[in-house]
Amino acid sequence: MSSPSSSTASRPPPNPSGTHNPAEADFLPTRDEMERAMSIEIVNQDNEKLTLGELSKGSRKKRVVLIFIRHFWCTNCQVYTHQLGLSIPPRNLPEGTEVAIIGCGSSAPIKTYTAFTSSPYPVYSCPSLELHKIFKFVRTLQTADTAPKPSPSSSKTSDNKSESDNSNTKASQGNAMGADTSSTCGAGHGGSCSTTNETTIGYLDGVGSETKRIWLSIKNGPFKNFGHYSTSVRGPNDQNGGEMIIEADGSCSFLHRMQNTADHISIEELARAIGAEYVPLSEAERKWPG
User: Where does the UniProt annotation place the signal sequence (predicted)?
Assistant: First the structure.
């Protein structure tokens, strides 16, 4: 992966097909984009404001690993955050490395999210979505199981528009209560689906079917925290995130952009990128409450 350039020339957009082609989707931010990002404000659980630069340079750590999640009710991201803390606990991080989670809503759900996911890492949010815009994180409700599958001979695939439209329609119908109807099985870096969409591999293995994950999103979202109902509080349903590593000099050495609602990079792969010891999870540890 190449180093960030100082050029501000336009870069190719993330792959619109919903499948993950790292060569197309995971280009690094430019130096100018990183400088702009450092001035963007985020908030902590007490609604205290700080800039990304203050977060990344506020200690003597050499590197900061940022996990950008979707909205705070997203079952996929809740599972990912929970398993991240188990498979890459703070004690396994290389010296001089820290990890932070960044959401896309207000500060209000952060304490609930941290407790529910048992995250050992601090959780912040970027209500303005300015970081998401600078880093070109994708906005889509396309799910992993409806993304066109790459052909064996090529990593590229044509965009099946009607299938994508059907997926977005289905997701939109479930948004009346803010339910995460996009909480489907992982694909690409995060895992993959069976043709029946009833079993999964990857970080969502052991969580249950698509129907169960939709129910969990509703039960653990509006049913328990109705005050977090607004998209301005929990975050937009269609805003995806990704994972990145910011070095001590402020440059970005690694960036993965989610191309669908479950496309987090596998935690084992993230551990390799960080240089952290990865802890495999047992079947019991992979199960999700609910």
Answer: none
DSSP H helical ranges for the chain:
22-25, 31-37, 52-57, 75-87, 110-117, 130-134, 161-173, 210-220, 231-234, 267-274, 283-286
CA dihedral 28, 82, 271, 62 (to 10 degrees): 70
- Return the SS3 of 119: coil
Decide if 73 contacts 220 (C-beta within 8 A): yes
The alpha carbon of 52 is separated from its chain's Cα centroid by a whole number of angstroms, namely 17
Q: What is the pLDDT of residues 259-290, one digit of tens each?
A: 999 999 999 999 999 999 999 999 889 887 76
Q: Give the model's pLDDT for residue 223.
A: 61
Which H or E element spans position 42? Answer: strand 41-43
Fold of 22-142+178-286: Glutaredoxin (3.40.30)
Phi, psi of 2 (to 5 degrees): -80, 160
- Please, which residues have CB within 8 angstroms of residue 225's CB and are 6 or more apart in sequence? 109, 112
CA dist., res. 125 & res. 220, Å (int): 19
* Tokens 């809740």 found at: 78
Query: Band of the pLDDT at 64, cuts 50, 70, 90?
Result: very high
